[in-house]
Write a structure and sequence with these properties.
globular, three-stranded antiparallel sheet, 9 strands
Length: about 190
């Protein structure tokens, strides 16, 4: 579930040299190792796991390239105090096809094909082994998406891509994770029980 929280931030970089590529891979691998420790329950009660903002951004970019090639690029998340603003360039038609394997209909192709800049602002609350994520605003190509248009976007693109994702409702965190908090410097998972 922690992976899903991190990926939401996405739903909000090519390497310049070989040494830069190695650094990117090490940062992403560091996030994967930390997530594995959490998900496999290998941490003592009272532990905390810190994810630096920079390593989270590297990990998110690599996840986007791996799971949504050609559909999502220029991924970045700016963390705040229990909030996040995610940035990405998204081709919604390719994203839907990568997520579901379905081809888009005529209306979808004509309205949503091509790369669009997307900004998603969200905040969350996390306590007692649970969390809740609420989307505050969405802008696509600078245009605010709200009301029925936002519902349509969530129903047709977010939910098919992340079917287990919970928005505006409480959900359980990974076993033994008491809470997750963010600051501009990064995210921290607090291990309980």
């Amino acid at each position: 579930m922690l992976r899903r929280i991190l990926l939401l931030a996405m739903a909000i970089g090519s390497a310049a040299s070989i040494s830069r590529s190695a650094a990117i891979s090490r940062e992403a691998a560091s996030v994967d190792r930390k997530l594995d420790l959490i998900e496999k329950g290998r941490l003592r009660a009272g532990s905390r796991v810190d994810f630096a903002s920079g390593e989270l951004n590297v990990w998110l970019r690599e996840q986007a390239r791996r799971y949504f090639p050609g559909a999502v690029s220029n991924v970045r998340v700016d963390l705040g105090n229990n909030s996040a603003t995610g940035y990405a360039d998204v081709d919604f038609v390719k994203l839907r096809q990568a997520a579901t394997g379905e081809s888009a209909g005529w209306l979808m192709r004509n309205l949503f094909s091509g790369e669009r800049s997307m900004v998603v602002q969200a905040h969350f609350v996390s306590t007692r082994g649970g969390a809740r994520v609420d989307v505050d605003s969405v802008r696509i190509s600078g245009v605010p998406i709200e009301g029925r248009a936002l519902d349509f976007l969530i129903r047709n693109y977010v939910r098919p891509t992340f079917p287990e994702l919970k928005l505006s409702e409480w959900f359980r965190l990974a076993d033994r994770v008491d809470r997750v908090a963010t600051t501009p410097a990064g995210a921290t998972a607090f291990i309980g029980r």
